[in-house]
Specification:
about 140 residues, mainly alpha
């Protein structure tokens, strides 16, 4: 009678229709020594379940890092604020004096002033180059290349 019940339980087990109590009964039957020969190939299956039930998982699983959206929101808010300030500044600033003159004589005089200032600064640079030329001549006479 017990063998007939075990065969029915195995059929139910393979169809995934057993309860936990029936599965426990199957595990107990296949854990003992007197298993019917035609059911012997199921012992490895239930022995595996028994072995795995006692084992523990020791491998460390990597956890996904939580993305901190507040920093991204702060960065986006600062960019929007800067863009808004730039737009407000460019929209509300008075028209710049572009240096336009009413008469050509005034424009000519201001251009001459600017070119004279540029010329003085260039001449300072040229005088520095003259000192470098003198240094090179002195170095050549001393070291005689």
């Amino acid at each position: 009678m017990e063998l007939r019940r075990i065969e029915k339980l195995i059929e139910k087990y393979l169809e995934a229709e057993t309860t936990t109590a029936e599965e426990r009964e199957l595990k107990q039957y296949f854990a003992q020594e007197g298993v019917a020969p035609h059911l012997q190939h199921y012992t490895a299956l239930f022995a595996y379940f028994k072995h795995e039930a006692t084992g523990s998982f020791t491998k460390q699983l990597p956890l996904k890092r939580k993305i901190n959206y507040t920093r991204w929101a702060q960065a986006a808010a600062s960019v929007v604020l800067m863009a808004g300030m730039f737009a407000w500044y460019t929209a509300n600033r008075p028209a710049d004096d572009l240096g336009t003159y009413d008469t050509p004589e005034e424009a000519f005089a201001e251009t001459q002033k600017a070119l004279n200032m540029l010329s003085k600064n260039v001449n300072v640079g040229v005088n520095s180059i003259n000192y470098i030329g003198e240094y090179e001549e002195t170095r050549k006479t001393i070291f005689k290349e």
